[in-house]
């Protein structure tokens, strides 16, 4: 077994010099933080790594009105704060560091390599890296990013007070974020490639009853145009072929997500879209590596399902850690 040099890395917890853990969780969104809570409560020494903002996709939204226990809804920032505090109260340590590589070792444990020369070491790993917004890949999208093209209504909506905006997509995110935007902007033109929606009927009904909403259906965005900032979108009707320009000051794109699984490509089995394949116990194809939340091949992606996945993943990881410890003890005894 390697000897681990200790260092000062770390942003929270009691022992900031620690590099050895029972469980390493990668990603501090709802899945990762819930896993941290359960693992800490099970008295596993636990680290949660995150490369950026604590809260994952929740940081991109304003309110959550379907998390149990909050009948009036709760602000996403408050919910993240509570998730984090809960995990830390049970002893999970959060480290802001991007893990670059997971290396399975012969004894069933893992090295996790960040940017430093020495790895972290854990007996089991839970992948909870979540997903990132999918892009349209049309002319103008990259060019106007941050100047009217946005993937986050709560971050950028306030810049477009009383101005017309477009929302692209027909899922829960497009509707939920469009409804949020309607409280700020003068008009929301929702552009969707079909005339049926994936979004929950309650969202669709709210939008249909909202006088600020206009629907442009069976239509795809061909270009986002402007000068120093966005001035409009060019859309094509897929049935009639008609092309028209819609003047807007911003385009909010909510067309689904891409799983953040580059780290584990070639390590664990992924489906065609890049989601981690697990069994119902959240086991991946590699013993000792588990997965929870949006990066998993699951039909439903909600905060509640992320939390549920994480709960199962920790219980299964705990069994694995016990097995590894028993094996290591046996080897230590027998040499
Ligand atoms: P989603 O459900 O996958 O919907 C993506 C939407 O974008 C679909 O309408 C899809 O059209 C459209 N789309 C995909 N690629 C496109 C492209 N290249 N060009 C144009 N349109 C495109 O994604 P989401 O809305 O981000 O939701 C992700 C998950 O989070 C879902 O499971 C959702 O239920 C969940 N979520 C839940 C809540 C909530 O309960 N409060 C809020 C937000 C998200 P088609 O329908 O034609 O495929």
Task: Note down, in words, how this protein is organized.
The protein has helices spanning 30-41, 76-89, 153-156, 172-182, 201-208, 303-334, and strands at residues 20-26, 46-50, 63-64, 74-75, 93-96, 101-104, 110-113, 120-127, 131-133, 149-150, 164-168, 187-191, 213-216, 219-226, 230-237, 243-247, 250-253, 257-259, 289-291. The protein is an alpha/beta fold. It folds into two domains: 20-132 and 257-334, 3-Layer(bba) Sandwich (FAD/NAD(P)-binding domain), CATH 3.50.50.60; 135-253, FAD/NAD(P)-binding domain, CATH 3.50.50. Strands 1, 2, 5, 6, 7, 8 and 19 form a seven-stranded mixed sheet that branches. Strand 11, helix 4 and strand 12 form a beta-alpha-beta unit. Helix 1 packs across helix 6 (303-334). It is elongated, with a radius of gyration of 22 Å. The model is unreliable at 1-15 (pLDDT under 50).
Helix amount: 10-25%
Bound molecules: NADP nicotinamide-adenine-dinucleotide phosphate
Strand-residue proportion = 25-35%
Structural class: alpha/beta
Number of domains: 2
Q: What is the CATH architecture annotation of the largest domain? A: 3-Layer(bba) Sandwich
Secondary-structure element pattern, one letter each: EHEEEHEEEEEEHEHEHEEEEEEEH
N-to-C span: 13 Å
Number of strand elements: 19
Biggest sheet, in brief?
A: 7 strands, mixed
Name of the CATH class of the largest domain:
Alpha Beta
> With helices defined by DSSP (H or I, 4 residues minimum), what is the helix count?
6
* CATH homologous superfamily placement of the largest domain: FAD/NAD(P)-binding domain
Q: Please state the overall shape, judged from the principal axes of the Cα atoms.
A: elongated
């Amino acid at each position: 077994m390697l000897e681990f040099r200790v260092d000062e890395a770390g942003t929270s917890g009691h022992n900031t010099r620690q590099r050895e853990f029972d469980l390493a969780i990668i990603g501090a969104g709802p899945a990762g933080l819930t896993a941290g809570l359960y693992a800490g409560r099970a008295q596993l020494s636990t680290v949660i790594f995150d490369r950026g903002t604590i809260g994952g996709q929740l940081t991109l939204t304003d309110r959550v009105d379907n998390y149990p226990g909050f009948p009036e809804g709760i602000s996403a920032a408050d919910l993240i704060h509570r998730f984090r505090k809960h995990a830390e109260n049970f002893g999970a340590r959060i480290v802001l560091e991007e893990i670059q590589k997971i290396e399975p070792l012969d004894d069933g444990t893992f090295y996790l390599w960040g940017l430093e020369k020495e790895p972290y070491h854990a007996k089991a790993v839970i992948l909870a890296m979540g997903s990132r917004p999918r892009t349209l890949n049309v002319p103008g999208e990259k060019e106007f990013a941050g100047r009217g093209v946005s993937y986050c209504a709560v971050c950028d909506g306030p810049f477009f007070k009383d101005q017309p905006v477009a929302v692209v997509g027909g899922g829960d995110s497009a509707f939920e974020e469009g409804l949020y935007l309607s409280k700020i902007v003068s008009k929301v033109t929702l552009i969707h490639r079909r005339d049926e929606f994936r979004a929950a009927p309650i969202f669709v009904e709210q939008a249909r009853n909202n006088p600020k909403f206009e629907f442009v259906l069976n239509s795809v965005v061909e270009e986002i145009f402007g000068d120093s900032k966005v001035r409009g979108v060019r859309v094509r009707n897929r049935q009639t072929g008609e092309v028209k320009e819609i003047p807007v000051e911003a385009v909010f794109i909510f067309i689904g997500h891409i799983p953040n699984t580059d780290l584990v490509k070639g390590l664990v089995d992924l489906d065609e879209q890049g989601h981690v394949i697990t069994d119902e116990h959240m086991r991946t194809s590699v013993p000792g590596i588990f997965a929870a939340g949006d990066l998993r091949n699951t039909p439903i992606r909600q905060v509640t399902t992320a939390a549920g996945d994480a709960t199962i993943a920790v219980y299964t990881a705990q069994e694995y850690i016990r097995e590894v410890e028993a094996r290591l003890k046996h080897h230590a005894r027998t040499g």
